[in-house]
Amino acid sequence: MVKVDGITYMYNRAVGNVLEEVGFDVDEGQCIAVLGNNGCGKSTLLKCIDRILPVQNGAVFVEDSNVFTLSGSSLAQNIAYVPQNTRSANMTVYDAVLLGRKPYIKWDVSSKDMEIVRDIIHQLHLDNYILRNVSELSGGEAQKVALARALVQEPRLLLLDEPTSNLDPYNQHEMLRIVRNIAREKNICVAIVIHDLNLAIRFCDRFLFLKDAQVFSYGGLESVTPEIIEAVYRIHVHIIEHKGIPVIVPFPDEKVKEEHREQFFDKQRKVI
Q: Does the keyword Nucleotide-binding feature in the UniProt annotation (predicted)?
């Protein structure tokens, strides 16, 4: 289990807190969607959790260990992070994925390391790319390689920052389906920054809405309501169901009920 406790972060005093006392927990095998408008601190939150950015306050616990006190190799064995924009590496796909085993390699690559790499490459359908140079791949293909490298770390917590941004619709669903299945099979906690609400409700178990540097709402599918979406995104939506799957349909031309939005926002803040 992962617990994020009271994360507070600011870039500078002029801007103020980008994140303020943000906290939530994730159970083993769960995928959570980190949601909110552009600039609300979603990517910053992942970077704080992975110690890329130094927090002003707070802690992150993975199975009772505070990751802010772990060594670099121990941190990499517990948390894997895939950024929004992955840099192209001048190496083969196989070698790029194998780098994810670095925290575990003592003297040389073991047969277990190679087995794990082959298994993840196969699950992500990258078998035909293993000898291709990563720098020659498309943005979507490179994104899948970055995910594969993170998965071979065998982390307890996987952080994904907009993993579907460079993918076509088929590959968006395929990638998130693979992530969800691996999370359940390996009991990995996953936090995904994502803008597509319909992908979020299709593949995630819980939903963390950020607004004004704080947690606005956190819960299961029952927490994804037109009222919450309207309050956070300032856009009117309807939620319908098709073949048992909820679908969020935006109606941007319908006027947002400002008075209701503010009342709902005040109520949510008191609950949080």
A: yes
CA–CA gap between residue 150 and residue 73 (Å, rounded)? 14
pLDDT one-digit tens code per residue, 25-44: 999 999 999 999 998 999 99
**What type of residue sits at position 14?**
A
Provide CB contacts within 8 A for 65, sequence distance 6+: 78
**Cβ neighbours around 27 below 10 Å, total:** 12
Sign of CA dihedral 33, 181, 176, 228: negative
What is the per-residue pLDDT across 216-257, written as a single tens digit (0 to 9) for each? 999 999 999 999 999 999 999 999 998 888 999 998 777 766
User: What is the reported pTM?
Assistant: 0.89
Assess if CATH 2.30.40.10 describes domain 2-224.
Answer: no
Measured CA to CA, the distance from residue 50 to residue 156 in angstroms comes to: 12
Domain boundaries, the chain: 2-224, 225-272
Least confident window among 26-35, 80-89, 180-189, 212-221: 80-89
> Using an 8 Å Cβ cutoff, are 26 and 2 in contact?
yes
CA distance 184 to 106: 29
